[in-house]
Amino acid sequence: MDSREFAKTLEKQVADFCETLNTKLPAYSYIPLDSDEARIKVMQSRLFNEIRAGEIFGGWLKSTPELDVKKTLAEAVHEEYIHAGYLEEALKSKGAVPYEYKPLPAQMAMFNAFEGLTETVERIAAFPMAGEGVADYLIGKSLNVGTVPAWVTGPYHKIHEDEEEHGNYPFEILVKYATTPEKQERAARAVAMSLILRRQYFDNLDRWVNEDKMY
Ligand SMILES: [Fe+2]
Ligand SMILES: [Fe+2]
What we know:
The chain has one domain (3-211): Heme oxygenase-like (Heme Oxygenase, Chain A, Up-down Bundle). Helix content is 76%, strand content 0%. The chain contains eight helices and no strands. It has helices spanning 3-21, 36-60, 67-93, 105-115, 120-144, 150-165, 169-177, 181-211. The chain is globular, with a radius of gyration of 17 Å.
């Protein structure tokens, strides 16, 4: 398949997944939450994600031969730690200790799975395209709904702007490099892996926030 057509099929797969979240929005989106206590827990979990995302992108640098992708990943590392700073500040403003948080089992599994991917197209498809795509979709919703308090939306306005600024870079990387049937098959499977693990993470986070269960 033409690589642009292929990249579009992956985008559609991610968009379809996002659609399924609308019937019952996860705590991750902040939208169903009605207490700052719950919002703090979600933000601590998402602060962990920013730190872990930077680790993953940085860990991929040496094994990424494509110089343009390497540079993009290096910028992404820096950006994730800027995002972490925004969330740290917001948590401190509520009197919370930002890193008083242990990653949830499904959250660990999701990031460990990203870390284990070895090829540029599967990495980019799984994480920047599918993972961050879903995250940013829910950020957009939380900013627009009007019921999420300003101490939460403040940092996410800035994070959302960053995500919009680099536009559709995962898409363009896939157009450029997902050029063989073998690479396309691996990228498609990596997207499916990412989405199923994300659903697990969202469910795990829901159970922890709503029922105080770790799994
Ligand atoms: Fe990011
Ligand atoms: Fe981020």
